[in-house]
Specification:
The structure holds 2 protein chains of 2 kinds. Chain A is mainly alpha-helical. In chain A, 70% of the residues lie in helices and 0% in strands. The chains are: A mainly alpha, B alpha/beta.
Amino acid sequence: MSVPYAKLPRWVDYGLIPLINLIVAFLVAGLVVLLVGENPFDAAVILVKGAFGNGENIAYTLYYATNFIFTGLAVAVAFHGGLFNIGGEGQAYVGGLGLSLVCLAFDSVFPWWINFPLSIVACAFFGALWALIPAYLQAKRGSHIVITTIMFNFIAASLMVYLLVGPLKPFASQAPQTRDFLPGGQLPKLGWLLAIFGLDIRNAPLNVSFLLSLVAAFFVWLLVWRTKFGYEIRTMGFSPSAARYAGINETRIIIVTMLISGALAGQMGLNTIMGDQHHMAIDFASGAGFVGIAVALMGRSHPVGIVPAAILFGMLYQGGANLSFEMPEISRDMIVIIQGLVILFAGALEHMFRPTIQTIFASLSPRSTGLPVKAEAR
Amino acid sequence: MAEAAIELVGINKSFGAVRANRDIHLTVERGTIHGIVGENGAGKSTLMSILYGFYQADSGEIKVGGKPTEIKTPNEAIAAGIGMVHQHFMLVHNFSVIENVILGTEAEMLLKSSVAKARAELRRLEKEYGLEVDPDAIIETLPVGLQQRVEILKALYRGADILILDEPTGVLTPAEADHLFRILKQLKDQGKTVILITHKLREIMAITDNVSVMRQGTMVATRKTAETTVGELAELMVGRRVLLRVEKGEATPGEYRLEIDNLSVSDTRGIPMVKGVSFGVRAGEIVGIAGVAGNGQSELLEAIAGIRPASAGRVLLNGKPLDTKAAADPAQLRKLGMAHVPEDRHHVGLVLQFEENENSILGYHDQGKYLSGPFLDIPAIRDDAREKVEKYDIRPSDCRLKTANFSGGNQQKIVLAREMEQDPDVLIVGQPTRGVDVGAIEFIHRRLIEMRDRGKAVLLVSVELDEIRSLSDRILVMFDGRIVGERGPDATEGELGLLMAGVETKEAAE
């Protein structure tokens, strides 16, 4: 039986502990940089400057963050229902297919502001569809959702390869991608938003789907904490036996939760395809679905945590790219190592420093830890 | 007097605030079968776990064969010649018998020689004690009785002189149990010592030489089996606990609100736990179901509450039979006027991670007064929770506090407040005061009687005999999945104790 943790002040729980984890991650990453023979302080400065140094850098950071907000929210919603959706990658990938079909069909017909809502619906529908089968198998047959969603990532990859070298590839093209969308299939950039702060985004692809991701974050908060359905999701996630007692239909919760999760993951394509590349290329999701898992873990599955966690990972992507450019000794792979360390300390080892901090707080001021948790002997 | 195989001197063991064993003295004579009886939670299993090295006593001494012995791990217990057969078998299901027997004692890199040695040894044990079992059979293909035999073989193979059996007949058919008893007698004849933990008095009378009775963590008596009676043991076991009796008037029962007709229920493994039970509960009365834990009461309660499917029979609510869909849907049952306080508030009745106010709507969260459209009406929910906190004196009086931070008694009040304030026609209650402090017990009892006086039908399941006797207007006793008797509230403890031990049914059958 796990020993329940005593209560900590909220700012420690949600602020100090993640910060300490992050600092430790960067210290270890610094050691790695040192091993490669570069100065870790210089590297850190380049990383941060590369992510936030000027308008263009900030816009790039937020552009990457947009992807991770969508996938992070997707993982978080499922997580509240006790479901570990590892399939964000595949759901994002297939979601992109939905939007591409809309854009290919209507980019010459409608302006972007009509195609945008159509694409949102298409992404949601296709993403949800990709989550439906694992959800059904979990709810009705007990097939473990972790396994099935991983498998569906592979199936998605194969399906998209088939489509992008076959039916969706323009005739006589050599590249495994769709044709370029016309302006009706392109989202406007958010230059005006950063211009308010006197920043210039130049060529960075930050676009309106960033705003959509913030709306989605609010929607997730509303859903999970303010609706009857969210209440049922959380009851299921915390205690399936209590949910059964409360008359909550387990099958329905599993399936609908996963549909919402898949729909959220599916939105990721809006940012990358409609917002930046203006065509669907092979492997456009490039791991964003997996980063979403780390983002959700680090953000404690709460939108208020997920948005900053996504921006942190956006920073690592953008700043990391700059770093490998300015310090050739540090390759792209090194950046992946640093990201891995952040995931390790902020996600997997989340509770490593907790007992120590707990003891410190208890000795400093017993009051601040609030009521002791009753550990009942059975 | 014969030589003592085991002597326990002044054993104490606490888990947090719960004193599971207090100052236990026990002497088990060599070459005897010694029974230890007591209700669930009396501390029998804790005591045996200390002897077998799973737990360590806070204080006290263990002597094996007269020598003080420290037993810190099961391995040290085995080295001292103590073997244990657990209630839930510790076997590897897809291994053969012989593989299970040698598991953990394989001496060499390769199994072959160990297996050969074990085969010879098994043959010897088989001949000596009549423990026949095919050494190459796979465990999961064997019936439960044979699996248990493998557990016994495991202990003997490790050189056990003293064998502890924890509720060995719980999973056995009567024929298998009889066979087990023959084996135990044979072990005794060969000079082994057997300690038998059980709450079934019939078994104690049938095969033990001596019997010790535990109650609430203390050893209350040790008797020679030949010199005691089932009645005396039952009374010792149940004891006379001091509990404030809540004043109550005469019941004025009205119409039948809840009728159970020939209901049968199986547990998750498919073993029948409730076997064709019929009874009714009228408006304005409390019907108590007494029984030693594990005789089907929990399953009965869950089936009525729609959490566990019934394998046969009907439930009638307000005279109308529940359709099969409603009978398996707690939400539907709530709408029809049935409220349920479950036995396990930690895992079933509450979500401990929720705030108090979130738990105060669990199961009723689809009622209009808590919702506005698809959204939760948070102010309404909190106001409602605050009202209940006040009315039921839930402390601390903070409806935003996490439920895990309330004490057991206050958690139970949260559940009771939620279920009672819905003003149901039928209230079914399981173990309402388990793990609850004395002050809260009285409060909860008062509330239950209030419900009755307001004309509600209350069905109460409890293993606390005192609780049953002080609250119930009619007492039904369950034994082995059946209702074996009905008594009025003035039934004596001894009388109920006998029924709970299944004594009357046995006499009636003979």
